[in-house]
Specification:
The chain is an alpha+beta fold. It is built from 2 helices and 6 strands, in the order αβββαβββ. The structure holds zinc ion. Zinc ion (ZN) binds next to loops.
């Protein structure tokens, strides 16, 4: 007799359906491919230029505080370690704002402050510190204009850093 198992199966399917998550009346739209970074609350960002390059890692150099302000050298935020890259070629360049950086011949990433504390993103710092001088890398970044808390300043976040496959 097969009726009973079939009823059980139907019951199971019905139970399965009723426990399925309700389909939302308003489907969340798929996030657009984010070119620009999502601004944090209280902050606005404008992308001024977009750089995609082939570069050579030159090394990490220490830069001293130049003792030019009243806060120097103990309370300023000058000095620290800076990773230097020489731009070999552009894969693409886009100037998206009037004051966007032109094509660069060098690019610098500040990695640590004068006390040796990391200032770069942890993953980026790890990638940079794994490089050896002379390594060829793909290096992409954006020049952004950030307004936060009533002040405005440029940022140049690295969007891609990876060794060129040899
Ligand atoms: Zn200083």
């Amino acid at each position: 007799m097969k009726t009973l198992p079939l009823l059980c199966l139907i019951a199971a399917v019905a139970a399965g359906c009723s426990s399925a998550p309700e389909s939302s009346a308003v489907a969340a739209p798929a996030a657009p491919a984010a070119e620009a970074p999502a601004p944090k609350p209280g902050e606005s960002r404008k992308v001024l230029s977009v750089h995609a390059t082939d570069a050579e890692f030159l090394g990490v150099v220490k830069r001293p505080c130049m003792h030019r302000t009243a806060l120097c050298p103990d309370r300023c935020d000058h000095g620290g370690s800076v990773a230097e890259f020489k731009i070999l070629a552009y894969r693409s360049y886009e100037k998206t704002g009037e004051y966007g950086d032109p094509r660069a011949t060098k690019f610098f990433v500040r990695v640590r402050d004068a006390r040796g504390n990391p200032v770069a993103d942890a993953a980026l710092l790890r990638d940079i510190e794994a490089l050896k001088a002379g390594d060829k890398v793909r290096l992409d970044w954006r020049h952004e204009y950030v307004t936060r808390g009533g002040s405005s300043f440029p940022e140049r976040p690295v969007t891609t850093l990876k060794p060129e496959s040899k």
